[in-house]
Structure formats: structure tokens, C-alpha cells
Design a protein that fits this description.
alpha+beta; 6-stranded antiparallel β-sheet; globular; 16 helices; 458 residues; 2 domains; Beta-lactamase
């Protein structure tokens, strides 16, 4: 009891915590980039209605400096923008969250008749029953418009009955964005610009449809052997679910808007209310806590060549947004967000000791060199081997890498518990492993081919 009284007095008499210092953030981001090889990053930090920091560091894939006005991909942070547009229409009486989507969007048809029961709320809290396991949104041919994204669902089935299970699925938000288009009578990009970006002063923000629409500043990198390699984003459709491009300055305005009446209080409460199926996912926002237990409202985003994260701390009024031009395999946006939040709470941020996966990259590059050497040796000795051995079954072990190479995407879907992925996307996640695997597959075929030729000649 006495200890509790002393602790309470100490907290009451202690000076209020100071705002995070921009120079402290600069030092942290600089050290982080030096340690990891991160090419470019944009950071926005706000408190209440004040901008504490909005700036860029390093270079874009185009070679231009990243500034506070450099458009970068925010990936799935876009879902918060889409949910806002839906809630605006709710406030206007044009949408009810618990009515079926089909009533607002008759073109939304699926092969599964249960889809007609999917409500607007279930789209936004990801409990519609649509899931990667039932509809391979990434590996199927990609649409070019929101209308096309909805049209391709006509042959799709649900994984679970609507409202019974949570499954994070980008198509939910593509359907929601198309619904906004149809109800408003304007393209989603135009609606978002007119009703969100322009009113909030987000002059350099927009939403795009596909990877082909990404400007040079929003393209990203892979980190291989500690070096950043500028690469194109794999083919994909993202409008509504991951197509927003924004800047540090614009994201600062977005964060501030969450605290000053961007929606009615009851609408904000709806956006931050999770479903029974997942207590951490609300309507385009996630609920969580910091390491110190401080409640936060957040959402991150991952492309294969860039990542982003946003976070609100309602108790203190802080808001943070981070956009990096490295992909999901490296997790730089989340790591930088964790470090900034730690500094806000008076803790020391963690800085990685070396670039991500450097040791793994070195091992697989060495393994690739060894594999090439063994393949050359095997081909050179193929005639001698053929004269001493018979039986085709002896070749089979050399063809295992080829089989794995073809099966790597299905194997990854199992490891991802039904998550969809394309072969090229596995390359982006594990570049040096895939380099070795493809090398091993080619080497195995070369050795088997040389030995079979040797047997045929023998």
C-alpha cells in the first residue's frame, strides 16, 4: 500500500514527458539506414494538431532524393482511406453498414449464393467469408479496374459463411471501393481526391490501379548481400486495398485529421470497433498496444518492394507514419515505427547490427557457387559414370531441385496457411534462396542430360 502511494506521488510530481525531438528521430533513422542499407524512407510525426516532423531520407529508386513531398506507396494503409470513404457515405445516409453489399452493388455476384448475405461491415472488418484459400487473388490474371476486380469474383466461392471467421483478403476492400464508385457515380480515384485528399490538403496524394501506375518515386528495392537493388513491383492490382500513394507532409495532415473531426465521433468509434471474430481488426484499422501497454490504433502495409505503417496513440495524441522503399521481406517500416514509438515512450530504439538476411544471403550465394562447381564436375565425368552405372532411377535425386522449383508456390501457400502467392513473388521474398534453387535445378538437369547421353552412346 505504501509503495503504491509513493509511486502515485512520484507520477504526480514528475515533469510531463517532452515531445519527441526531430533531431533524435533524424539520428535514429540515419543510424538505421547505415546499418541496414535502407535506400529511402519518409517519416511523419504529429501530436494533436501539430506537425513535429515531416521529412524524407535517402533516395528513391529513380535516384531522386526522398523529400517531405515525395510520393511513396502506402500499400495496405490504403484500407484506412477506403473505410473512410465508406463511412462518409454512411454519414450521408447512402449506406448502412449492416445491409448486404449486393443491394448497393448488384454486379457483386459470386458462384457461392451465400455471398448475397455479405454486409458492408463484413467487407471492412474482413469477415465476409472471402479468403485467399478460396480465391487466389494474386496468382489469377490481374484486373485493370475496380469493376474488373469485382467481375472476376463471379466464379469464386467463399471459404466460410459470411460473418463467421476473419480472413485478411484484399478483395474485400476492392469490392468496397467499387461500391463507393457506383453509389457516388464517380471513379474511386476522383472521389478520394475530391472528398478526402483535397479537403485535408493532401496535395501530392492519389490512388492508382496497378503496379504499372507506380511512379519512379514509389518504386522500391530488394536488399541482396546488403546492397539495395531497384526492381519493379510484381504485377498486381491494388486500388481500394493498397493503391494509395502519399508523402510525409500529406500523411502528417492525414494523421492530424484523425483527431480533429474528419468524421463524427460515432463514425470514428465504428471505424475502431473490432469484430467478434478478431478483436484486433476493426474497419480498416487495427487495435493493439505498445511494449509499455499503451493502446494504439494502427495499420501497416506491404508490397514486395515497399512497406508502410501508420499509428495513432489516442491517449497522448501522437500520430506516426513511415514509408520505406524496401519490400515486405525486410520489414523496415514496422521496425522504424517500433523505434519511433519507443522514443516517444522514453525508451531506446533498437538498431539492427547488420543488413537483413545478410548471413543467409552469403550462405546461399556460396552454396550456388558450390552447386555450379559440382555441376561442371558432374558433366565432365558423365561418360565415365555412364560406363560404370545402369538404371534410370539413379538420376531421380538430381531432379528433386527441379521438382521443388515448380512446386515452390504451392509449398509456400501451405506454409502461409492458404495465403496466395505467385512464383515470382517467392523470388522477391527469398532472392538468394531462389537463385540457388534455380541453379540447382539447371545443374541437376545438365548432369542427368549428360549422363543419359553418355549411356545412349555407350
Amino acid at each position: 500500500m505504501f509503495k503504491n502511494i509513493v509511486a502515485a506521488l512520484f507520477l504526480a510530481l514528475a515533469p510531463p514527458p517532452q515531445d519527441i525531438s526531430p533531431s533524435t528521430v533524424d539520428a535514429f533513422v540515419t543510424k538505421y539506414r547505415e546499418a541496414t542499407g535502407l535506400p529511402g524512407v519518409a517519416v511523419a510525426i504529429t501530436k494533436g494538431e501539430r506537425v513535429i516532423l515531416a521529412t524524407g531520407y535517402g533516395e528513391a529508386a529513380s535516384g531522386e532524393p526522398v523529400t517531405a513531398d515525395t510520393p511513396m506507396a502506402v500499400a495496405s494503409v490504403s484500407k484506412s482511406f477506403t473505410s473512410l470513404t465508406v463511412m462518409q457515405l454512411v454519414e450521408q445516409g447512402k449506406i448502412e453498414l449492416d445491409r448486404p453489399v449486393h443491394g448497393y452493388l448488384p454486379e457483386f455476384e459470386m458462384a457461392d449464393p451465400r455471398a448475397r448475405k455479405i454486409t458492408v461491415r463484413q467487407l471492412l472488418n474482413q469477415t465476409s467469408g472471402m479468403a485467399d484459400s478460396a480465391f487466389h487473388e494474386k496468382s489469377l490474371p490481374q484486373p485493370s479496374t475496380l469493376k474488373g476486380a469485382v467481375a472476376r469474383l463471379r466464379t469464386a466461392n467463399l471459404a466460410t459463411p459470411p460473418g463467421t471467421a476473419f480472413s485478411y483478403h484484399n478483395t474485400n476492400y476492392q469490392v468496397a471501393a467499387r461500391m463507393v464508385e457506383v453509389i457516388s457515380g464517380r471513379p474511386f480515384a476522383e472521389y478520394l481526391d475530391t472528398h478526402v485528399f483535397t479537403p485535408l490538403g493532401m496535395r501530392h496524394s492519389k490512388t492508382v490501379d496497378t503496379d504499372r501506375d507506380l511512379p519512379g518515386s514509389a518504386r522500391g528495392h530488394l536488399i541482396v548481400l546488403g546492397q539495395a537493388l531497384a526492381v519493379p513491383e510484381p504485377a498486381g492490382f491494388g486500388n481500394g486495398s493498397g493503391g494509395v500513394l502519399s508523402t510525409a507532409n500529406d500523411m502528417a495532415r492525414w494523421l492530424i485529421a484523425q483527431n480533429n473531426g474528419v468524421l463524427r465521433p460515432e463514425s470514428v468509434k465504428e471505424l475502431r470497433t473490432p469484430s467478434e471474430q478478431d478483436k484486433e481488426y476493426a474497419l480498416g484499422w487495427m487495435l493493439g498496444t505498445t511494449k509499455r501497454g499503451t493502446p494504439v490504433v494502427e495499420h501497416d502495409g506491404d508490397l514486395f518492394t515497399s512497406t508502410a505503417a501508420q499509428l495513432l496513440m489516442p491517449e497522448s495524441g501522437y500520430g506516426v507514419a513511415v514509408m520505406t522503399n524496401t519490400g515486405t521481406a525486410f520489414g523496415d517500416a514496422d521496425a522504424l515505427m517500433d523505434g519511433i514509438v519507443a522514443m516517444i515512450e522514453g525508451d531506446r530504439p533498437e538498431i539492427p547490427p547488420m543488413p537483413p538476411m545478410l548471413v543467409t544471403d552469403i550462405l546461399f550465394v556460396l552454396l550456388t557457387v558450390v552447386t555450379v562447381g559440382l555441376a561442371v564436375r558432374g558433366v565432365a565425368r558423365s561418360r565415365r559414370w555412364a560406363s560404370e552405372h545402369r538404371g534410370r532411377w539413379r538420376h531421380l535425386p538430381y531432379l528433386v531441385p527441379l521438382a521443388v522449383c515448380f512446386a515452390v508456390a504451392p509449398i509456400m501457400r501451405v506454409l502461409l496457411r492458404g495465403g496466395d502467392i505467385m512464383w515470382v513473388q517467392v523470388v522477391y521474398l527469398f532472392p538468394t534462396f531462389m537463385l540457388w534453387l534455380v541453379t540447382a535445378a539447371v545443374a541437376g538437369v545438365a548432369v542427368v542430360g549428360a549422363r543419359v547421353w553418355g549411356q545412349a552412346r555407350g
